[in-house]
Amino acid sequence: MYDKGKIIAGIVIFLILITFPIWYLTAHSQTSHVPQLQAAAGNECVESTSYMLDNHMKLLDEWRTLVVRDGNDTYVASNGQEWNISLTGTCLSCHNKAEFCDQCHTYEGVTLNCWSCHFAGY
Amino acid sequence: MNAVYLVFGIIIPYAALFIFVVGLVYRIVRWASSPVPFRIPTTCGQQKSLPWIKSKKIENPYNNAGVIGRMALEVLVFRSLLRNTKTELRRGIQKLVYKDSKLLWLGAFVFHWSLLIILLRHLRLFVEPVPAFVISLQRLDGLFQIMLPTLYITDILIVLALGYLLLRRMAGAQLRYISLFSDYFAVLLLLGIALSGIFMRYIFRVDLVSVKELALGVLSFHPSIPAAGIGLAFYVHLFLVCTLFAYFPFSKLVHMAGVFLSPTRNLANNSRMRRHINPWNYPVKVHTYQEWEDEFREHMKDAGLPLEKE
């Protein structure tokens, strides 16, 4: 092998870069961390759990449009029940931001812009 | 059914990563074992000679600094692609026309940088806690804040760039003639990965918490298929990525490593300043004229032949 020093240095740099997740995980020892969602205080959500799991971001986006752009602050759920459209008033009256929202969002590195306007102290 | 998930979720990813790492190191060692006896850099500018003749330090590097500058520009911005030209027979003027063709550079640049950014963005699924630079990169990439989930600029760019690189091969007769299976396969595979990822993000959505659970399990060498299960779209995307990783060392895609080992790029053009000795030269047994004359001096003297040394 020619230029042994340079080649081995290059291979070592490549291996360090490619195994970055492995040693980063080892350094932080967070491999088995799973989001722990706290059960909500209320009895029922606006829509079913499976619907909310998939579409909560779409629902909140729709709510934002209804209130801010159309001036309509009542949401009629699929079962006909009416809800006051309010993130802090309705959603956060049952769910806790730190123990519910942030659990998955932090875990997945999701960047959202709810809290740039809404008070996040709930 | 469990066994199928085991194969596609755990065994194939491990195998693909193993083939990728070992294969790439093997290729690098193979390249490094081939001697490069002569300096063969491609020179595109004035060589360094007399102090009053201006030389091009990067186009025709004569020392390590020049080579590093040249390599850095090649690796980071694909500078040599800017020299791409195309030849056309213009029917109207009945002439062969040569002209600059910078679109290839643009396509390659956009594709490679998008791929890098997308790869770094994926770190959010591979490490816990998510590093701050990944979050910043994600914010920057989703700058437009349109659509739900946020549309990433690189997702659009990579599809456009790969689409162009594919159409480019198919549109021109000359390029189509020299394009081989492997040329199409690499582009189509990357396009498949990009599109399957985008479809997974917007249409066939999967549970990301389970995805990360699987990824962390695999990377910490305690793999398990998440109990909640992950949608089929994820396995399609993952399998295509594994195919890419496993195919990598055997294909033209190894230019990722090969670009650093290109003798036409990584050598300084200093043949006229330093003597480079062929590494496979072995000591040749020589018999000089002086020695030969010493050996036959008496016979030559007797025969009356002229001698260099009496």
How would you characterize this protein structure?
The complex is a heterodimer of chains A (122) and B (310). In chain A, strands 1-2 form a two-stranded antiparallel ribbon. Chain A is built from five helices and two strands; from the N terminus they run αααββαα. Chain A is mainly alpha-helical. Chain B is mainly α. Chain B has one domain (2-284): Up-down Bundle (Fumarate Reductase Cytochrome B subunit), CATH 1.20.950.20. Helix content of chain B is 56%, strand content 4%. A two-stranded antiparallel ribbon of chain B has the order 1-2. In chain B, strand 1 and strand 2 form a beta hairpin. In chain B, helix 1 runs parallel beside helix 9, helix 3 packs antiparallel against helix 5 (153-171) and helix 7 packs antiparallel against helix 9 (232-247). The longest helix of chain B has 32 residues, at 2-33. The A-B interface holds A 1-4, 7, 10-11, 14-15, 18, 20-22, 24-26, 28, 30-35, 53-54, 57-58, 61, 104, 106-109, 111, 113 and B 21, 24-25, 28-29, 32-36, 123-131, 134-135, 138-139, 142, 145, 148-150, 205, 207-209, 212-213, 216-217, 219-220, 222, 257, 260, 279.
Features:
heterodimer; A: 122 residues; mainly alpha; two-stranded antiparallel ribbon; elongated; B: 310 residues; Fumarate Reductase Cytochrome B subunit; two-stranded antiparallel sheet; 56% helix
β-strand percent of chain A reads: under 5%
Tally of DSSP helical segments of chain B: 12
Alpha-beta classification of chain A: mainly alpha
The CATH topology of chain B is what? Fumarate Reductase Cytochrome B subunit
Strand/helix succession of chain B: HHEEHHHHHHHHHH
**How large is the share of residues in beta strands of chain B?**
under 5%
Largest sheet of chain B: 2 strands, antiparallel
CATH architecture term of chain B: Up-down Bundle
Biggest sheet: strand arrangement of chain A = 1-2
Shape call of chain B? elongated
Tell me the helix content of chain B. 55-70%
Give the mean pLDDT of chain B: 93
Q: What distance lies between the first and last C-alpha atoms of chain A, to the nearest angstrom?
A: 63 Å
| Overall outline of chain A | elongated
Order of helices and strands of chain A: HHHEEHH
